[in-house]
């Protein structure tokens, strides 16, 4: 009798517990409205992990440091190793699964589209993923043929090209003519007549300085031109035993000249190009002819 009574008491207690539990579950459960991606990472590329930036305002995911040019054969089948989001992430009409590899090699042209559904199944956010890749090998020079030879009578031998303003001029051993094209073109070249340019110029010495071209002659004269076709002797810089031009800087032309003892020394023009100022002796291993140079400004 006592056992039966005990069973009844236990049964009543269990029923009471179930009723109380049910009554307490009447409250509404609120799910998160967080529809953002908090972290994104790809598998390693050549053993390196490339950080990705998430722009929450514009909904873009991209790598600031571009992957190597040759990585196109890696990112065309690569895993997303990390994608932190509270809800579900879709690509198209399919839930994104991190165990599936993706072709991300063309995302610079057509970014991968992702849609995030928040846990509340109401809020959503769209993202685009762009894997930036170098367009060419930074350690290689890629050349593109712009036009066929513009020398109608065959190659003229030695040539020298130089930029003047918005044009490229090409001079040859025939100092009576030159060829030019616009920097924005490069495919159409025009032959022009050249006036007063001596036949004994040092062709490789032609350089641009302050919107003019300068050239040396074999007899130590300096000629200049403002348009590339009409040349005149620069009497202030001529007759100073200058053997070669080295480079043109924003404020001066540098060169190599012989001093009174026949020793080669560096020289530089003064501010108003009225004379040459002599510097230190030229090292024996320094080039004294066929010199090409370029000067550019860095960002810092």
TrEMBL record:
<dbReference type="InterPro" id="IPR046209">
    <property type="entry name" value="DUF6242_N"/>
</dbReference>
<protein>
    <recommendedName>
        <fullName>Exo-alpha-sialidase</fullName>
    </recommendedName>
</protein>
<feature type="domain" description="DUF6242">
    <location>
        <begin position="137"/>
        <end position="300"/>
    </location>
</feature>
<dbReference type="Pfam" id="PF25852">
    <property type="entry name" value="DUF6242_C"/>
</dbReference>
<dbReference type="InterPro" id="IPR058667">
    <property type="entry name" value="DUF6242_C"/>
</dbReference>
<dbReference type="Pfam" id="PF19755">
    <property type="entry name" value="DUF6242"/>
</dbReference>
<feature type="domain" description="DUF6242">
    <location>
        <begin position="42"/>
        <end position="131"/>
    </location>
</feature>
